[in-house]
Amino acid sequence: MKMKKSDLIVVILMYVVCGFFGVLTTGLKPEAQTYPWFVICILFVLTTLYVIKMAVAAKKHGVESGFNEIFEGFLPKQFWPIVVMTVLYVIVMYYMGFYVATVLYLVGTLLYLKIPKWQILIILVVMFCLTYGAFTLFLKVKLPQGVWMKALLKLLK
Amino acid sequence: MLETLGLMGAGFLHALTPINILAMAASTAIGIIIGCLPGLSAAMGVALLLPMTFTMSADTGLIVLGGIYCGAIFGGSISAILIHTPGTPASAATAIEGYQMTLKGQAGRALATACYASFWGGLLSCISLYFFAPLLAQLAMQFKSPEYFWLSLFGLTIIAGVSSKSLLKGLMSGALGLVLSTIGADPLAGVPRFMFGQNSLYEGINTTCALIGLFSMSQALILAETAIKQRAKAAKVKDKLMIGREDIKRITPTILRSWIIGNVIGILPGAGASIACFMGYNSAQQFSKHKEEFGHGAIEGVAGSEAANNAVTGGSLIPMLTLGIPGESVTAVLMGGLIIQGLTPGPDLFVGETAKMTYTFFAGFVLIQFFMLAIGLIGCKGFAKISRLSDAILIPCIVVLCVVGSYAIRKNMIDVIVMMIFGGLGYFMRKFDLNTAAVVLALILGPIGERGLRRSLLLSGGDISILFSSVICWVLIALCVFGILSPILMNKMEARSIAKAGGDMDADEMFTEDHVDYDSDHIE
Description:
The structure holds two protein chains of two kinds. Chain A is mainly α. Chain A has helices at 7-26, 34-61, 67-70, 76-96, 98-112, 117-138, 147-156; strands at residues 3-4, 63-64. Chain A folds into two domains: 3-70; 76-156, no CATH class. A two-stranded antiparallel sheet of chain B has the order 1-2. In chain B, strand 1 (184-185) and strand 2 (192-193) form a beta hairpin. In chain B, helix 1 packs across helix 14, helix 2 runs parallel beside helix 4 (58-83) and helix 3 (42-49) runs parallel beside helix 13 (329-340). Chain B is globular. The termini of chain B are far apart. Mean pLDDT of chain B is 83; it is low at 504-524.
């Protein structure tokens, strides 16, 4: 089996994790250092073994990209906007509360994914009933009100 | 013995309270819906709905999770039979004969067979749950700190090895999870570690947030990256949703064989329903008196596959409940559900007051099978329509449920951010063939292993020979070696089963790909 260049990313990530947590561990009190060092060493040894395996594969069978296989059918114009909208959803939720952010997020993503408007309306109603029924009524969870919404409600009072 | 019988009886009485009955019906239906949607897995469904069980009593919460698990395993067969796309990998073998029966106008017969076989497979698997779980729990009571250290390593080697394409990558995933499990206060000295100024990380990374991120959020990202395809139209069920006496007589030996296969596979940590369905299918073919029907819609093929994959459910709970070792991703998520309820998986579940809860869960698990049969038979046609729900609708809905679910745990926005980070990590890991289940398990088992190791060393004054001081330690070390070597064996078993079953049905591929490249209108 050929060595995959894409695996280099995995290896680099693992070494970065080892290095990052290794540096942080040196700043801990001595009694709290033992176990973190133990698991960091395990990760380091396993990653190194994988590097050796990759080197052997490269020498015996050659090298291939691996990225084509991983990102086959990947649509950046669909994926990244959804990721951005999802991150924005959490930020907007912090300021404007759960329900406003959820309506904006659902409408935004569903329109972007070309779902007919009448279906969007049904989805909004279903999701509202589900979250309100399950979390607010059943679990008694006070969903995020949002910093701005709280301030607005205070002003109105 | 009498005490156990008393607990069993009390378990059924508790399980039959109105709230538990409602929980069984609702969770089984939700599980079936999740199972029949290609692209959603049982683990993802259980992770997504985990936060809803917080405020429930422990037994009701576990019954809900059990219902989703069983329902999802069965639900996969509906889309496998009607649209030739298994909802979960556990139904990949069902699609072979089930869809052929649909093409012959026997969709109702195929669905009824799947319901009936799933019911018996699941119900019979409860026998081993009742019989083996207390026995194994008694053995686990002899475990001390060194044994717990090895037990945590055993759990990791098993799941890291079996669920990964590359053994080393699986072990690396487990080690990464162990590193992440050190975030939070040191369990013995209470010294804060790697908390980045966040007090909410004092107790470590919230396992439920990590679960939701790794299994559910990452799935939404996976669905979002490729073109949204139109799913094939489900075939109309023209015949009656029932099987006759002749059929029952024909499939009974198959169901019994598949029950044993599924149960053994379930108890073995690391093996799962996707292996069991092919093994059940193969044994059905091997012992059938109508071998010529295989490949053209053999009823035994559907029964063999479905009875085996549902027989896995009861068996797979045994190592998780008694030793705290989940054998696959769904049971790892279920274990998260136990921990959320403040329970420690292991022998303690079978002692004192907790035993009542455990036996109520067992009884609930038995009753769930009846609900699965009833809801399956009544709602098959409706579920088939749901299975066509577009990924474009699923993606934002999953994201909203992930966000609200992770927030509901501690009413804390930090938990939402942790979930999002783990969602990104899960996506990366799945793309690069790393193992998300191993990370979750490491987050759960890491603190147990750390306590075991450090307490052992404290007791022995730093002498590591204490880790090799008992027979149980050596047995567990041998099992760790087995855990590392077993993937090779399991891969061979699965490859052989798939090859025997027809060759082209790769469970993982079928799970992720939408098979819509054929015109299904001709079967209407």
